[in-house]
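Renewal narrative, Specific Aim 1. Our central claim is that a sequence can be written position by position from structural information alone. The example that follows is taken directly from our test logs and has not been curated for this report. It begins with the structure tokens describing the chain, in the order in which they were read.
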């Protein structure tokens, strides 16, 4: 198979145009100035790793697609990557609060997914509180061993073991569970709202149908 390598700028420009976004629209969504995006696309500026990851999220691109089309994932490296792929269970939101017991005692009829991330289990997104970034039935991969930091996407559960998925925001000593959908309100974590962080989202799988 012949691999045609694209520059990062050309790849990102093609994906932006495929999504129908103008430079200024892409700027608002990614937080990068439209002039910087233009410079990246024409090759006069090289984006940082964090910036590239931000564009992939903005344009809803899988990282494997980016790696293949830009030549960063050769057949040899692709074979090495496959060696790192593992199967993890897709738990229910009820099971998420008891992930350790569930993940360590898989059932024959469970559904599994492949990942090369450091995730331990996966969940299917419910509802629309995290749109437009996460949609109903998207699959998110959770790492329960990471320390949750400001802006991380986290899965938490309350004292009744009811799990929810939000973005963690920290403002000084105040911690907030933030839904991305503006029609939902923030949840301030305090004495009257005891939530336990189950894990940090490390990967998303998109569902097209």
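The sequence written for that structure reads:
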């Amino acid at each position: 198979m012949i691999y045609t390598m694209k520059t990062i700028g050309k790849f990102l420009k093609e994906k932006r145009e495929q999504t129908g976004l103008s430079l200024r629209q892409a700027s608002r969504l990614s937080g990068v100035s439209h002039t910087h995006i233009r410079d990246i696309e024409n090759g006069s500026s090289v984006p940082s790793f964090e910036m590239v990851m931000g564009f992939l999220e903005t344009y809803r691109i899988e990282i494997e697609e980016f790696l293949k089309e830009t030549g960063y994932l050769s057949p040899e490296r692709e074979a090495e990557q496959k060696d790192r792929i593992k199967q993890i269970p897709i738990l229910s939101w009820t099971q998420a609060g008891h992930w350790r017991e569930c993940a360590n005692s898989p059932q024959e009829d469970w559904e599994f997914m492949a990942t090369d991330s450091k995730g331990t289990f996966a969940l299917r997104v419910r509802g629309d509180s995290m749109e437009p970034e996460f949609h109903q039935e998207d699959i998110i991969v959770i790492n329960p061993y990471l320390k949750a930091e400001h802006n991380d996407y986290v899965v938490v559960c309350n004292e009744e073991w009811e799990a929810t998925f939000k973005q963690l925001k920290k403002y000084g000593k105040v911690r907030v569970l933030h839904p991305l959908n503006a029609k939902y309100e923030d949840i301030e974590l305090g004495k009257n709202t005891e939530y336990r962080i189950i894990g940090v989202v490390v990967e998303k799988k998109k569902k097209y149908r």
